[in-house]
Every structure is written in structure tokens, then in C-alpha cells.
Design brief:
Strand content: under 5%
Number of helices: 2
Number of strands: 0
Helix content: over 70%
Order of helices and strands: HH
Number of domains: 1
Radius of gyration: 18 Å
Shape: rod-shaped
Length: 78
């Protein structure tokens, strides 16, 4: 593994955790109190899946942007 792959992996983990926290906080702040157990479970599963989907797309975007920056750097440096 090279430093670029390690950096992308580390940034991907940080990004995924951040996105998951944001989605979780949004769900918590918009979920009414006093729900029954079924609704609590479905909301927890839904927020987990939604957070994972958004995190996956965000990490793909981040990796593409890193690759674009490296390509531009190579063009400038030559």
C-alpha cells in the first residue's frame, strides 16, 4: 500500500463516521417521543441504511476528488 491509499482509507473512515453521526442526529431530532417498539426498530434500521448509503456516496465522491487533485498536480508538475 502506498501513502495515497492509506490516506484515502483514513479520510474515508472519518467521512463515513461524520456522515453517520449527522444522519443519526437528524433522525433523533425529528423522531417524536413515545413511539412503540416496532416504530423505534424500523426507524433505527432505516437510519442505519440511509446513513450507510449517504456515507458510501460521500466516500466515493471524496476519492474521486482526491484522484482529480492528484491528476492536476501531475499535470502541473509534469
Amino acid at each position: 500500500m502506498n501513502w495515497i491509499s492509506i490516506g484515502k482509507g483514513a479520510l474515508g473512515v472519518v467521512t463515513s463516521l461524520g456522515v453517520s453521526n449527522i444522519v443519526g442526529n437528524i433522525v433523533k431530532s425529528t423522531t417524536p417521543a413515545g413511539l412503540n417498539t416496532f416504530n423505534k426498530i424500523t426507524i433505527a434500521v432505516g437510519s442505519f441504511v440511509l446513513g450507510s448509503m449517504i456515507a458510501d456516496k460521500t466516500v466515493k465522491y471524496l476519492n474521486e476528488e482526491i484522484d482529480n487533485l492528484l491528476t492536476k498536480k501531475e499535470e502541473v508538475v509534469g
